Structure formats: structure tokens, C-alpha cells
Amino acid sequence: MQQSSFRVWKRCMALARRCSTMRQLKAAQAVFTIHGLHRNTFAMSRLLLAFCALSNSNPVINLHYASLLFGSIEYPNCYIYNTLIGTYSRSSQPHMALHYFRLMLKDAGNSVVPDNRTFYFVLLACVNAFSFFLLGRKIHAWIVKNGVFASDSRVQTALIRLYAQWKVFGDARKLFDEITSPDVIKWNVLMNGYVRGGLGSDALIVFREMLACGIEPDEFCVATALTACAHLGALCQGKWIHEYIKKTKGLKPDVFVETALVDMYAKCGSIDMAADVFERMRERNVFSWSAMVRGFAAHGFAKKAFHCLERMQVEDGFRPDGVVLLGVLTACTHAGLLKEGQFLLDNMEEQYGIVPKHEHYSCVVDLLCRAGQLDNAIQLIRRMPMKPLASVWGALLSSCRTHKNVEIAELAVEELLKLEKGNREEEDAALVQLSNVYLDARRSEDACKVRRMIGDAGLRKTPGCSMVELDGRANEFVSGDVSHPNCTQIYAMLELLSIHPLYN
Predict the structure, then answer these.
(1) Under 8 Å CB-to-CB from 196, ≥6 apart: which residues?
(2) How far, in Å, CA of 442 to CA of 73, rounded?
(3) For 354-374, how does the pLDDT look when each residue is reduced to its tens digit (9 = 90+)?
(4) What are the φ/ψ torsions at residue 496 (nearest 5 degrees)?
(5) What is the pTM of this model?
(6) Cβ neighbours of residue 394 under 8 Å, at least 6 residues apart?
């Protein structure tokens, strides 16, 4: 390369690195074209990388432009493919990463071979796309065949995340056990998968295994374990983890861990401990305030929830989001604060800039129903700017039994059956409630008709379920289930209580 050409090359490379807007990048592309660098694979890869780096500001437009730029490269190499696949895998269009992966495979004749980074990005795309599990399995087979799994930690983590996300926990656990020395990230991915899949007990078992192996958990692991405790109502284990955090020198509780503590104590019934942790926090974010508001709401402290709404704006300068306002509306529902709830719903957009969503309307419908104002509840449903979902009609139906309103119950069931068409469990639940409304209104013939309808359709009511923590372990009980190891003793105690009832 001549000296003058080298100076042009160097200047163009520097120009591509300095670009911070799409306008500048397009100008840089014009310069590249003028000097003939658009035919140079390395130069175009630098420009493509710059376009991808700007994708966070306007991902759809910028990535589309990056794709057009890719199309102009005559012989894209593995680095260029990986750049585009990796950027798309983290974007709102992860399916496009898989599109370029397929192009890469077709281009294998030009010595373009997927490497470890390619496999990691493709697995990440499968996770984020929520619809490419079978492809992820094929990639898994390919990875094992090429010996990548044993040597690449990031690929291992991505595979565990893939199986955990799709709730194939047997395979996720098997993969995890095949890893010789799993790091903290892998432990947390497995735990988090269990929590998201509703298996909090399994997540806590993994957490205890981790400690037994001498692996010191980081803030993410601790927050995940606390979330599992919150889901299970496992207060004793949550307290133990709290003490562990205090005693471990290398573990510094950040705002996320402390927020998880607030949420855990509130959901496990210890609102005083939740408030104590919250007041001691040096730093709070919107999620911290939201957890505290939801905690007060669940425990019926509506005034304290409203006070938090004021404090978060005054003390920390945070504007409440939709989740916080939903928590306050829930507090109004539990405390029967009808005027306050209606006022908040009507003024959310003007006062806080939050457009009410379906869940906000559903909460106020429930509030009106609990107050016996079923007609007003229907009026609110009719003026909702979105289609009412099952939660709204379900709240209305539940109140009809209390207030013996058969006409509105029939309307609610009719709407529920339209929404839940094909969902036999939900259809059955709605019809059972309707039969109960008929019985309470002394319309036994109509109740019998509904029961016969349930029997003829072969519907079955979903059994009830409850959970209690004992000796640090969450015990789950399902109606009619006799699989509990202490089933004999439990039934014996229930029989004793039935023979000798306790009186206050």
C-alpha cells in the first residue's frame, strides 16, 4: 500500500470510530465509497461494527441499515457474520440473528466456519426469541459434536439458560452437572430458571448445594434465593439468608439485594421487618419503593402506601411508575378506599403521566365490586379503552355471589366463556361460581342445570392448593392429595381436632 493510500486508509478508519450519529456514519460510508474502500472486507467490517454499535439508539432503523451494508460486502468473513448475529441476538429482532446464521452456513464454501462466538450468539438468539427451542437443541448437538461445550464457559451458560427458560429442568440440571467447576453465573442461571418456572424449593436446594461446594454467592445469587423465599413464603430461610449477608465480608448488599429483602419479608408476612430493611437502605430505586408499596398494600396499610407514594417523590425525586400506582390501587381495594381509588385512576395520566392499563382498571372494578356497586363496576368496564379480560369479569362474578345478583353473574359468565373458550379449567370455574350464585339466590333448578352442564362437558374443577413452611421447608398441599410423607399423622391430627374442637 502506498504512503498516500495508507494515510487515506488510516483517516477513514479513524473517521468510522469517531462517528456517533447515523448522519455521520452515512457520510463516512460515502467517503469509504469515494476512496474505493467499499470493496475492502476489513474496512467494511469496521463500518458495519460502527453501525451496530449505534443500534441501541434506534435499533430497527440502524440494524436495517447495517443489514443493507452487509449485503454490499462481496466476501463477508466470520468476524462480520458474528458482529451482525451478535447484535441482532440482543435486539428486539433475535430471529434475524438466526437468518444470518443460516446465510453463514450457506457461505461455508467460502471458508466461513462458525466458531465458539457464533454458537454463543445463536443460543442467545434462541433464548431471546422464545420460539426456537428445537433449533437450540440442534445447536446443542452440533456444539457437543464439535467439542465446544467442554471448552467454552459462555456456551455452557447459554445452553443452561435455554433449557431453563423452556422449563426443561431435567436437561438443564443434567447439563449443569456435566460441568466440572461451574462458576457463580451458572449457579445463578439454574436457580433463576427454577424460580421463573415456579419451583422455588428446587432453587433453594441449588443455593444450599452451592454453599456446600464452597462457592461464595454474589449479589445476583442472593437476590435470586430471596426471590425463591418470597414465592414460597419461606420466612425462616429468608431470615437465614439475611443473616448470611450480614456476616459475609465479601458480600456487599446493593440496592437490588436490599429490595429483594424488602419484597421477601413483605410476602412472607413480616411487614415490620420489610419496613425496617427499607428504612435502613442507603440507596433506593423505583423498584424499592414499589416493593414497599406492594407490601403495605398486601397487609392492608393503605395510608402507609399513600405516604410512600408521596415520600418517593419528595425524598428521592422518583416519579411513580405504573407498578407503584397499581400497588396503591391494590391498597385502596384491600382497605375499601373507594373515593381514593377512583380519584387515583381518573388522575393517573394528568398527575403522574401514566396512562392507566388494564390491570389498573381491573383493580378499581374489584374495588367497586367489594363495595357492592356492581352497576358502577359495569359502567367502568364499558368505558375501558381496551377489551376487558378475564380478571375484570372474574372480579365481577365473585362479587355477584356476595350480593346475590344473578343477572350480572350471568353476564359475567357469558363474557368469561367467550374469553376462556377452550380453556376447560377456567370454563369450569366460571360455571361452578354461577351455580353457587343460583343456589344463594334460591334458584336450585338453575343451579342443577349448570351442574349437569359441567358433568356433560366432562369438566373438572381445579383442586385447591395451600402451602406452609415448617422447619425451614415449604410443604405444599393439594386438595385430595395423599402423597405427603407425613400424610397419616396429618389426617390423624385432623380427626382429633374434629372430635375435640378448640374454642376461644
Answers:
(1) 164, 165
(2) 78
(3) 999 999 999 999 999 999 899
(4) -60, -40
(5) 0.78
(6) 412, 416, 430
